[in-house]
Design brief:
The chain is of the alpha/beta class. It has three domains: 7-53, Transferase, Pyrimidine Nucleoside Phosphorylase, Chain C (Transferase, Pyrimidine Nucleoside Phosphorylase, Chain A, domain 3, Up-down Bundle); 83-327, Pyrimidine Nucleoside Phosphorylase, Chain A, domain 2 (3-Layer(aba) Sandwich), CATH 3.40.1030.10; 335-423, Pyrimidine nucleoside phosphorylase-like, C-terminal domain (Aldehyde Oxidoreductase, domain 3). It is built from 16 helices and twelve strands. The protein has helices spanning 7-15, 22-34, 39-52, 56-67, 95-105, 124-128, 140-150, 163-175, 181-193, 215-231, 253-264, 270-287, 293-305, 308-319, 355-365, 406-419; strands at residues 83-87, 110-114, 152-156, 199-206, 236-242, 338-343, 348-353, 381-383, 391-392, 397-403, 420-423, 433-437. The strands form four sheets. A four-stranded mixed β-sheet has the order 1-4-5-12, with helices on both faces. Strands 6-10-8 form a three-stranded antiparallel β-sheet, covered by helices on one side. The longest helix is centred in the middle third of the chain and has 18 residues, at 270-287. 55% of the residues are buried. The structure holds uracil. Uracil (URA) binds at residues 169, 183-184, 187-188.
């Protein structure tokens, strides 16, 4: 029998730059799950990992141990390929809301467990909860039943899924250890791979509004995510996408749901659809229901043209307790009391729209949260946002602010006026789809 592993020995090994064995990693993850390691010991090892890094084998081992710290959903009874996507988070990124039903309409099940917004990025769950009655807290049995019935379910993380991540993420948040590639990798993948999926596509964002703004770092994260998931037997690809300006023309929960419904009706903004198709194509290719990118694209386009994706969305909303009538009447979504246009003082071209500046304005309006326990106002945000390169006439609107509070409105107006620059020459947006990895 191997000798007992003391937390202090494991911490010291990583502190000195050693690679941890699978047994040492399992001891750490068990310690986080059952409380047998003290918070200061967990935090010390997190910091040692942050400073010393991990080999690809250690990262895969940590991911696997964290994934198995709770239930791993068994969806083998579902006679369809099962694919999911994950975005590292952006501003105005509502792609999951309409892409999941598009993929389901193409015959691939989408078991999607999502998160809430924290800081400047929005969360899929908050967006869905703006639909009156929508329940994100399905039990695992309800989740399975919903997948059987309509081929897609979008729910929140349950206490049974990857509990080690919940503990470790809370500690990372307060110990300066969030920005570590192996820790981010294990955190994201342990939750995603516990869903019971066959294949995964990641949207790794870079640019001003991204969680990891520097492209070189974001690419490093994409490579590590693909390597760890592939090592665990899950075919995975990452699409690197630019996040300089917000995606689409809306930022804010109910406003983004309405824009996603527009996407399903064939009226989606060009940039949002470009990202949607790029990720959707990879999902259908990996799931094996399309042989070429062009064939995948044709299937996705048909799901919109024939209305099958919209019907999947309606089935998901009503199957999860929501008001399916929002599909035909988006006006049933929460509406803000004040709707005020942002008016251009001069004619010109949009030179830049700072995604981070817009996100902070939306946060000030109440669309997001600074702390995990904060409530969100589903109705507020910004709509009809101008895009980089567009011409604006003097006195014409380049966005509409939706607010429920006069002082927040005034601050958001000032923040947006700074975030959106209008000048004599048109700005050029960076290429949206940068690279597919894997
Ligand atoms: N998202 C996660 O779920 N975990 C991280 O560590 C970072 C982003």
């Amino acid at each position: 029998m191997s000798p007992a592993l003391f937390p202090q020995q494991i911490i010291a090994r990583k502190r000195d730059g050693g690679a941890l064995t699978p047994a040492e990693i399992q001891s750490f993850v068990r310690g986080a799950t059952d409380g047998s390691w003290a918070d200061y010991q967990l935090s010390a090892l997190l910091m040692a990992i942050f400073l010393r890094g991990m080999t690809p084998e250690e990262t895969a081992g940590l991911t696997s141990a964290m994934m198995h710290s709770g239930i791993v959903a068994d969806l083998s009874g579902l006679r369809k390929p099962k694919a999911d996507k994950h975005s590292t988070g952006g501003v105005g990124d509502k792609v999951s809301l309409h892409l999941a039903p598009m993929i389901a309409a193409c015959g691939v099940a989408v078991p999607m467990i999502s998160g809430r917004g924290l800081g400047h990025t929005g969360g899929t769950l908050d967006k869905l909860e703006s639909i009156p009655g929508f329940r994100v807290n399905l039990s695992l049995a309800e989740y399975r039943a919903q997948l059987e019935k309509s081929g897609l379910a979008l729910i929140g993380q349950t206490a049974e899924l990857a509990p080690a991540d919940k503990k470790l993420y809370a500690l990372r948040d307060v110990t300066g250890t969030v920005e570590s590639i192996p820790l981010i990798c294990a955190s994201i993948l342990s939750k995603k791979l516990a869903e019971g999926i066959d294949v995964l596509v990641l949207d790794v964002k870079f640019g001003r509004g991204a969680f990891m703004p520097e492209k070189v770092k974001a690419r490093e994260l994409a490579l590590a995510l693909v390597a760890a998931a592939t090592a665990m037997g899950k075919p995975t690809r990452a699409v690197m996408t630019a996040m300089e300006q917000p995606l689409g023309r809306t930022v804010g929960n109910a406003l983004e749901v309405a824009e996603s419904i527009d996407c399903l009706k064939g009226r989606g903004p060009v940039d949002t659809m470009e990202v949607t198709y790029a990720i959707g194509e990879q999902m259908l290719l990996l799931a094996g229901v399309a042989k070429t990118k062009a064939a995948a694209r044709a299937q996705l386009e048909a799901s919109i043209a024939q209305g099958t994706a919209l019907e999947k969305f309606r089935a998901m909303v009503s199957g999860q307790g929501g008001d399916g009538r929002v599909v035909d009447k988006p006006g049933r979504l929460p509406q803000a009391r004040l709707k005020v246009p942002l008016v251009a003082a001069r004619a010109g071209f949009v030179q830049s729209v700072d995604a981070m500046g817009v996100a902070l304005a939306a946060l000030r309006l109440g669309a997001g949260r600074a702390k995990a326990a904060d409530p969100v106002d589903h109705a507020v945000g910004v709509s009809e946002l101008a895009k980089v390169g567009e011409r604006i006439e003097a006195g014409a609107p380049f966005g509409v602010i939706h607010a429920n509070d006069e002082s927040a409105l005034a601050e958001a107006q000032a923040m947006l006026a700074k975030a959106i620059v209008i000048g004599d020459t048109a700005g050029v947006a960076p290429k949206l789809i940068d690279e597919v990895i894997g």
